[in-house]
Amino acid sequence: MAHAIWSGAINFGLVTIPVKLQTAIRTKDLRFNFLHKKDEGRIQNVRTCSVCGKDVAWDEIERGYEYEKGQYVTLSDEDFKRVNPEATQSVDIVQFVELSEINPMYYDRPYYLEPEKRGKHAYALLREALVAENKVGIARVVIRSKEHLAALKPNGDALVLELMHFADEIVEQDTYEFPSQEKPAPNEMKVAKMLIDTMSEPFDVTKFRDKYREDVMGMIEARAAGKEVPKAKIKPSSRGKVVNLMDVLQRSLEQSKGRRGEGASQSEEKPRRTARRKRSAA
To answer: Quick one: which H or E segment has residue 90?
Structure first.
């Protein structure tokens, strides 16, 4: 059983719901060490001063903010404690908004809010009210001494607290160049919509997996067992090639229809095989 990050409460109006903040993400990144090619010795991180060139111990290090080139304001642990947000261990809802009002780009990381036994009824009430009104709560919360903006959202039986980026953390779109004046031809639009239609199906996240991670782990296991790993086939890049967009759309549509047809044939064949087995058994 995972340990709660903290036990606190959801506060909205005068209502207090005791909850535990639980992680909702299981990170499965592969972690590697840097080794010396010659003897596979671990490479250590060394802290070296750029002025005197000597190695520096942790107790001789302080933090500094470079406000001008080469000019720093230094800060101690006490300085940080003075401005640290108060760790109230509570989710303080400040307003409710329509779910559609929030640009998904603002979402960052989800956490489960698990109710304490004495708060289950109020928890369920808040969850069902949010569902009925199609609203989410906008809240402030402190996690690990850092204040966050967050959205409180119903998700099945759970209430999920999704940490959000502040407005000034999102890069403005006009920083980059996007084809705002580009208009597709009607025939291209028609085929593109047909392609989207043939590729549309209900979303099932369990159908997807981290194939790159699986391949890397397979290579590691093979190497550890002393086996040869076959060389990967490099797909030739089409970058820079001039293509006829309409031709590519048409070919994509035909390919997608072919795959859908194969899928339908397989699904039809399954009940036929089942029926044949039943007749044989009889």
So the answer is: strand 90-98
Q: Tell me the sheet residues that pair with 113.
A: 21, 159
CA–CA separation, 114 vs 157, rounded Å? 10
Q: Which parts of 10-119 fold into alpha helices (H)? A: 77-83
Q: What is the pLDDT of residues 189-235, one digit of tens each?
A: 898 888 888 888 898 888 878 787 888 888 888 878 888 877 767 66
Beta strands 63-68 and 90-98: pairing type?
Answer: unpaired
Q: Look up the CATH number of domain 6-25+84-167.
A: 2.40.290.10
Measured over the CA atoms of residue 171, residue 176, residue 180 and residue 186, the dihedral's sign is negative
Instruction: Tell me the backbone φ, ψ of residue 254, rounded to 5 degrees.
Output: -60, -40
Nearest to 233 by CA among 215, 217, 250, 213: 215
Domain spans in the chain, listed from the N-terminal domain onward = 6-25+84-167
pLDDT at 206: 85
The model's pLDDT over 227-244, given as tens digits with 9 standing for 90+, comes to 887 776 766 655 556 567
